[in-house]
Structure formats: C-alpha cells, structure tokens
Amino acid sequence: MVAGVGGVSAPGRVLIDRRRIAGRVDAMASEIEREYKSCRDAVLFVPVLDGALLFAADLIRRLSLPLQLAGLAASSYPGAATTSTGQVELGLFRVDVQGRRVLLLDDILDTGQTLATVKEALRQRGALEVRSAVLLRKQRETPPVVEADFVGFEVPDCFVIGYGLDHDGRYRELPDVRVLDQDNMI
Ligand code: XMP
Fold first, then answer.
1. SS3 for 58?
2. What confidence tier does 182 reach under pLDDT thresholds 50, 70, 90?
3. pLDDT tens-digit map of 17-57
4. pLDDT averaged over the chain?
C-alpha cells in the first residue's frame, strides 16, 4: 500500500498513470468524433455502470457531437470476486432505443460477456446500431466473445482497479489504473 489521493491508501502498482489515461481518452474522443460526425441525430452514449462512470465523464466532455447519455447497470462480479460468474445481470433501462445509434462505454473488455449481453438487449429493443468503446482490453488466452470498436489500452490478464474499476466496491475513485495483487485482495 502507498499513500494515495486525499490520504487514502492505494494498493498495488500503477499500470497506467493518469497522464497516459488523459492522453488516450483525448485520442479516443477524436476517433469517435470522426466516426459519428456525419450522423444527423444525437448518438446515444450508454455507459455500463458503475465501472464506466469515470471514463464516460471524461470522454463525453471532450466530444463535440450531438449526444445523449443514459447509463445501464450490469454486474457479473459479485462482491470480492476477481473472476466473472459468466452471468451478466442487467439493471432497469427505460430509454427508448428504437432506431437509435448507440455507443456502449465500458471500463474493461474481458470475456466479452457483458458487452455481448448488453448489445443483444439493446438490439432486441430495436436499436439501429450498437457499437462499443472500452478503456481497457484484457489480453486473454481465449479471445473475448465480442470485440470493441474503440479500445484505449491493451492490458495483461490480471485484476485491475482504479479509474472506475473496483474490487468489492472499493478503489473506483483512484486516478490511475493499478494492478491489484494477491496480497491486497479481500
Ligand atoms: P467481461 O468478462 O464481461 O467483463 O468482459 C467485463 C466486466 O467485468 C468487470 N471486470 C473487471 N473489473 N477489474 C475490475 O475491477 C478487472 O480486472 C475486471 N475484469 C472484468 C468489469 O465490470 C467489466 O465491465
């Protein structure tokens, strides 16, 4: 543990620091803007909550596009688990997506089950197009079941926290992405 922001200790080692995150989020905003600049209707940005909160907040403030925002809760990591259950539970989502272009935002692409489940749910509700942007993509032996259209960073197959990512509900507020080692797990 090392001292973190505001006197709170931050476990593990820094994998991607806040300056690199800011630079990459800037570049992703430019890529996304280029991709959607010819769309006449507002693109619906759907952050997958809670993990994508910080990424979404930083990304959309860099965009100069007509957009709307509607978060959707999804969970596959109960409590202190560090591997997915494979079952993705979705929260309530009352926004009408019929005929809309949707861009999902997520903190990390791991097995791909979360993005696959959310994409399918929105397509079933009539979305015209569902694409996705993730801050991180885990380099796994088995590739994810779906790929993301925009990727911030490739990361090793380990458990990461910070910048929205949690362990048992903690550490989302940390400004850097860190690797949580065994000693720091609950
Ligand atoms: P899947 O396997 O569905 O996983 O692609 C994506 C979701 O699982 C969570 N996840 C993590 N959360 N550190 C975390 O804090 C991790 O290393 C990690 N890997 C996956 C995350 O909520 C993501 O939306």
1. helix
2. low
3. 999 999 999 999 999 999 999 988 999 999 999 999 999 99
4. 91
Do 77 and 106 meet the contact criterion of CB atoms below 8 Å apart?
A: no
148/31 Cα distance (integer angstroms): 13
User: What would the pLDDT profile of 131-167 be if each residue is shown by its tens digit?
Assistant: 999 999 999 999 999 999 999 999 999 999 999 999 9
CB of 157 closer than 8 Å to CB of 140: yes
Q: The domain 18-178 is classified under which CATH number: 3.90.650.10, 3.40.228.10, 3.40.50.300, 3.40.50.2020? A: 3.40.50.2020
List the residue whose alpha carbon is closest to atom 21 of ligand 1: 108
CB 146 within 8 A of CB 174: no
106 in ligand 1 pocket by Cβ < 6 Å?
yes
Pocket test for ligand 1, best of 48, 113, 155, 165 (most atoms within 8 A of CB): 165
Q: Residue 110 catalytic?
A: yes
Q: At 168, list the tokens.
A: 């048992």
Q: 167: which DSSP letter?
A: B
CA of 110 to the centre of ligand 1 (A): 6
pTM: 0.92
Both tokens assigned to 106:
């997520």
Q: Which two tokens stand for residue 147?
A: 């790929």
For ligand 1, whether the C-beta of 176 sits within 6 Å is no
